[in-house]
Structures are given as C-alpha cells and as structure tokens.
Amino acid sequence: MDTTSLRINGARLRATLEEMAKIGATPGGGVERLALSDADRRARDLFVTWLKEMGLEIMIDDMGNIFGKKSGRNNDLPPVMSGSHIDSQPKGGRFDGILGVMGTLETLRTIHEAGLDHERPIVIVDWTNEEGSRFAPAMVGSGVWAGRLERDWVYQRTDVHGNKFGVELEGIGYKGKLPAERWPVHAYYEYHIEQGPVLDRLRTTIGVPKGIVCLHWYDIHLEGTANQVGPTPMEGRNDALCAAAEMILKVNALPAKMGGNMVATVGEIHNAPNSRNIIPDRVHFTVDIRSWDDELAIRAWEDVKRDFESIAEARGCPIRIEETWRVQHTPFDENLVKRVLDNARALGYSSHSMVSGAGHDASYMSQVAPTAMIFVPSIGGRSHVEVEDTRWEDCEAGANVLLHCVIQSALEK
Ligand code: GLV
Ligand code: MN
Ligand code: MN
Hints:
By secondary structure, the chain is an alpha/beta fold. It has helices spanning 10-21, 38-53, 98-114, 140-145, 151-156, 165-171, 198-202, 240-258, 294-314, 334-346, 362-366, 392-411, and strands spanning 57-60, 66-70, 80-84, 122-126, 187-193, 206-212, 214-223, 262-265, 269-272, 282-291, 319-327, 330-331, 351-356, 371-376. Helix 3 (98-114) crosses helix 12 and helix 8 packs antiparallel against helix 9 (294-314).
C-alpha cells in the first residue's frame, strides 16, 4: 500500500482535544488535571474508552502507565511506541502533553481506517505524572518503566497535603497489576507543543529537537525563629523568609554568572506560619536548573549552594537541602531525528532544528530506546498557563509528521 498520500483527520483530532479540554477545564480557558486527581482519572477513563473502541489491547502497569497495543503482522518484534501525558500543571494549558496522546490516537485511527498492514505492533502510551507539580519529581511513570527511578520511592512521595503517591494511584483505580518494567521498543516518538517562543518567532511549523536539556531539582528547607513582629526589634531576628528571598535572587542571577546556556528558577515556595504579624520560621522552596551542559548545571548548583549556606549562617536560619532529582541531558537518536525532518519536508511544512528546554518522558525513553520528538509552535511562546495555545492547522501538521514517522518505523522488519 502506498501510504504517501495518507493524512490524519484534523477535524477529528480537534474534536478529541476539545473533548479532553472539558475535563478539568478552568475558568481562564485552561485545564487543571493534576496527576492522580479526579480530573486525571476522568481523562484516563475517556482515553481508555477510545482505545477500547478501536479494539486495542489495553495494559495498565503498577505506575498507572496506560498502554494500548495495535497488533502488527509480526507481534514478536519490538513495537513502535508513541504518546505523552494526560496530567497537567495547576491552571495549565489545553495542549501540553495531551496533544501527544491525542495526536497518537488520531494516528492510530488513521492507520486503522486505512486498513494498513504494518509489520510491527504500535503502542500508544499515557505516562503517569509527567508534570511533577503535585508529586515531585516529574516523569516518574517513564522513569520507573525505564528502570531509572525506584517504584517504591515514588509511591512514598507526598503532595503538599501529605497524600502519598501510591495511595492516590490506588485511589483513582489505576494501579495496574503489570510491573512497570521496560520491554524492548523499536522506536519511541513524542509529539508535543514547543512551550517556548522559537517556532512562533520564526513562523515555522515543525520543530525538530536534537534532544532535551538536563533537569536538576532541589528542595530547600529553612528554619527561623517565630515571634510577634511588633515588639521584636529588627536586630537579631532569624527571619526564614528573608533568608529565602536573598537565596532566590542568587538563583535568578546564576545563569548570567555562570555563562553558557542555562536557566535557573524558583517556582514554588511555602512560608509558615504565613501570618502578616509573625516572623516566618519555616520556609520550603524549590530550585530548578536546566542546561544542555550537565557539568555546568552541577557547577552552578555547587556555587549557589555555597551562597545558600553563607546566607543561612548570616541570618541564623539552619538550612536543610534535598538534592531531589537529576536527569541528564538527552541527545535523541540521529536516524529518528532525521526521519522527523525528512517527513516534515516531504509533507511541505517548514521546519527548524532545536533543543527542548522543557522536560518530557522522551528524556527517560531516550535512555532505553531510539527516540525522537516533534514540536509545533506555542502561540506567543506561552505554556504552563491557561492561555497556552496552538493553531489547529499546526496541531494537524504535527500529527501528520507523527503519522508518517510511526508508519515508517512500523513497516521496518
Ligand atoms: C515539564 O513540564 C517541565 O518542567 O519541563
Ligand atoms: Mn508536557
Ligand atoms: Mn508540562
């Protein structure tokens, strides 16, 4: 069968994305589907319904990863896998993650309708807790599956209310029986919005990442001395929030200080007792450092850690540091990257080679299987926000590139 003229159904892709966007919809036009929340469960249920309609074999592992398998001519061969994540940030967007899952669903529907006889099985996947917003760290579903994170350690991770990951996974009914353990994968594709400004600025349709930057996460806990703000003189205070404030600015200044290509962010802070007339005595904040150069990111951390320790000392606020998570930078498979580029060109779309600054499950997948990603523009470069948006024609274009990449890999003997 000549597949060159095969195209996905853009209207159907849009309809599935719009249907999914109703689950956890926020008043500002985004979605909130935090990992293992009720909204995550409802979106998973709908996803599974759609997989069943196509007659796929459904597998759910003990990390809650959902796989749907479409048989090929030779089911002994390692499958082609494609997918992303259904969970979102708090007040997140309607495209991050879900585009890759629905784009793969649309790819499978197109292949199914065309009656294409492919050699290898094709597996669609929804990875659990890619965001790491409710339960840190991120990408734990793929991380455990790839053998890079310990399942029982992840089960013990807690959200801000002290709820455990393992209990919540069971609670939404998605703790499957199958152990989350990797099996051989012939090729892994992940289709995603760019989440940055590059493609939009260049007015380019398809982004072809050569890999993903490293991601390093840290948790900082500070202790101060609480007291009445009125009678307590300024001298001699141990104000944990002031110590945190100084530290946060050091993080912000880090990329300029270190040089090279790096970003560093404090995005989450918890202050206690959080009363306007009590000197803060407990602060917890997070640090996120990313670079293509792992060594530079580590040197940056060591530098800022020294600053943290001297600020803590000067302010009399004992500090506890957790080195929570590190994922090395990930170069993708050159052949698959070339395939993405070639398909973008063959389909007549403009394309651009780049690096992903956002983390993706493709990071862990790339450590165990040939991997590549396909990006489409984020309007105004905005993501992890309710106004996150991508043109429908770009969603369709990216899915067409995915379709042809998946078909070509699935036809390989
Ligand atoms: C994942 O969403 C990330 O933090 O890049
Ligand atoms: Mn994502
Ligand atoms: Mn995200």
